[in-house]
Design goal:
Largest sheet: none
Shape: globular
Structural class: mainly alpha
Number of helices: 8
Number of strands: 0
């Protein structure tokens, strides 16, 4: 999913939530848009470059990273896009409203991502579980 779409959807929801949650509405923006910082972390780890623009185009061009990543059995690990992180945030949501709103943002973000991955048939590219990704590391 394009960053601009995540940005706009997260911004709109945040603005809708401001009258309800006040300053805590920023949590929706964190969960809905800022979780994509893990794409940049992946790019930095893989390429050892700090170029934000290159990282953006690397992930935007699905054909490029699909071909590159398909050379390996290992899917992309976007740490904030894995089930275990969602579960932690979900559990924390029972203790503070801030995490509930982050979780709602994550949920919207992930639904948009899954929709895009199914539409483009790119659903095998990204790891959905950290534990599974780690197991695959040792398997190969």
């Amino acid at each position: 999913m394009r960053l601009l779409i995540h940005f706009l959807v997260s911004l709109i929801f945040m603005l809708i939530f401001i009258p309800i949650f006040g300053y805590l509405a920023i949590a929706f923006f964190i969960g809905g848009f800022l979780i994509d910082v893990d794409h940049y972390l992946w790019y930095f780890i893989k390429k050892r470059k700090l170029n934000l623009k290159e990282a953006y185009y690397y992930h935007r061009d699905k054909e490029y990273f699909t071909k590159e990543e398909s050379k390996s059995d290992l899917p992309l690990l976007h740490i904030f896009h894995v089930f275990e992180i969602w579960l932690i945030v979900f559990i924390l949501a029972f203790f503070h409203k801030f995490f509930l709103i982050i979780f709602l943002g994550l949920l919207v973000h992930v639904i948009m991502d899954i929709t895009e991955m199914v539409r483009t048939k790119a659903y095998k590219i990204r790891a959905i579980s950290l534990f599974y990704w780690i197991l695959k590391q040792f398997k190969g």
